[in-house]
Amino acid sequence: MGYDSKLIDQLFAGSENTDNFRNNGTASEDGRQNYFGRVSYDFQSKYMLGFNFRYDGSITFPKDSRFGFFPGISAGWRISEEAFFGDGVVDNLKLRLSWGQLGNDRVDQFQYLGIYKYGANSATGIGDGYVFGNEDIKGVVPDGVANPNITWEVSNNLDIGVELGLFDGAINLEVDVFKIKTTNILGRRQASIPAYTGLDLPDENIGEMENQGIDLSLNYRHTFGEELYFGIGGTMTYAKNKIIYFDEAPNPEVYQNLEGTPLGSALVYQTIGIYRTAADLSDNVSYTNAGLGDLIFADLNGDGLINSDDRYRFDPMGDPRMQYGLNFDLSFKGFDFNILFQGASNVKRRYSNGFSSSAGGNGFAYAAENSYTVDNTDAILPRIASTTLGNQNSDFWYRNAGYVRLKSMEFGYTIPQALTSQVGINNLRVYVSGYNLLTFQNNNDLGYGDPEQGNGGYPPLKTVSFGVNVSF
User: What span, in angstroms and rounded, lies between the C-alpha atoms of 182 and 199?
Assistant: First the structure.
């Protein structure tokens, strides 16, 4: 009762009668159909071939482009099994190569349909109901322009790997070099059809992006005699991405373009110092109302002015480019010890000139003690409460946020069974363990909290535990 159309039977679309205002309800629809298979071949553990495929259909796309075929192939050659490869310190040498495609349909649904909705248009703000006489009438407005050609985003994944084993497996090395190129990324045309036309453009499969890097793993494991075991291993991953194509509006300067820069790159001013003296103000290109204690910005286009044209594409590196870990294991007779370090580098965090004192730490105190004043002209921070252009986003506020953390450590002792069996115990082990014991990080004086979280949240709890493991 009270519906404008029998095709829409959710409660939100009901009558505007005030007696029904508290009623609400929504509905959603989703569906996928998938076919997949795999064929593999192995000859004498020397030559390995594989083929796999996915044939996926998604309700997100129109019928003509609903299904996508995503194949993958792999090959391996264990060189160490060849007759010409003589006995020696190398007991395993394998080359690997793989290529495959993946499809992504996790985008806004039904973009191929002409959508109408109650309420204001998301782009124009027009709509949101009308009053005729004394009666409220819901407004139905178009919500964007349909794209009947929308289809899957596609990632092409290439991986080349090497496996190396030495000294009967005591040393094992794995190296993988990878490259991922993603095409058909959904995006809106901003250059060919400028925003000032007022058109609410649909997403199109026009974007391209590339990600490449290397994975490395190196381990050493060996038992000396019958009771001493030693192991050490490390992992490292380095990855970097860049935008290959994005239909962006023309920028005043080439160095402001997104293409060729990492995803998430921001337009910021390049900082070259702080105005500490009157000479600094006269010797550098200044901006309106610049004063002592403000940041000095570079005049990148050389026009003698500091304005938005001097901003450049800066990679904030919000996610670490490099992540690594190191683990160590040792056991002797009944004693055992293990330790794990983890860390990240090539990562930055943005510290505003407000320096929040929430979960991150005592930022207000740091800002007060280290900001420029007439009595502290050598301060490392600009003056507080600047209302000039110097208060705008610049690379000055992005600081190295790399860290190394002692993630876990445990020491234990297993009492000899000859003793425990006398009281009916098969195994008795006592131990002490710790988590998040130490963190070494850059710019720790900023009090920015946990570098691993990336949002300045509460530092992790340092935990020390004592325990006993008993089995009967």
Answer: 27
Residue 262 forms part of a structural domain: yes
Residue 286 lies in a domain: yes
Name the burial class of residue 310, with classes exposed (0-12), middle (13-18) and buried (19+) by CB atoms within 10 angstroms of its CB.
buried
Report the C-alpha gap between 367 and 380 in whole angstroms: 10
394-412: average pLDDT = 91
Tell me, yes or no, whether 263 lies in a domain: yes
Q: How many separate helices (H) and strands (E) can be counted in the chain?
A: 3, 23
Q: What is the pTM of this model?
A: 0.83
Which residue segment(s) compose the domain that 376 sits in? 253-315+359-396
Total domain count for the chain? Answer: 1
Smallest Cα–Cα separation from 13: which of 108, 129, 135? 129
The full length of the chain comes to 472
Indicate the pLDDT class of residue 4, thresholds 50, 70 and 90.
low
| Average pLDDT of the residues in 97-104 | 96
Residue 378 lies in a domain: yes
For 163, 172, 412, 441, the CA distances from 341, given in Å and listed in that order, are 24, 20, 19, 13
The better pLDDT of the pair 390, 427 is held by 427
Q: What was the pLDDT predicted at 354?
A: 45
Q: If we measure between CA atoms, which residue out of 309, 312, 195, 317 comes closest to residue 247?
A: 195
CA pseudo-torsion sign 52, 57, 58, 61 = positive
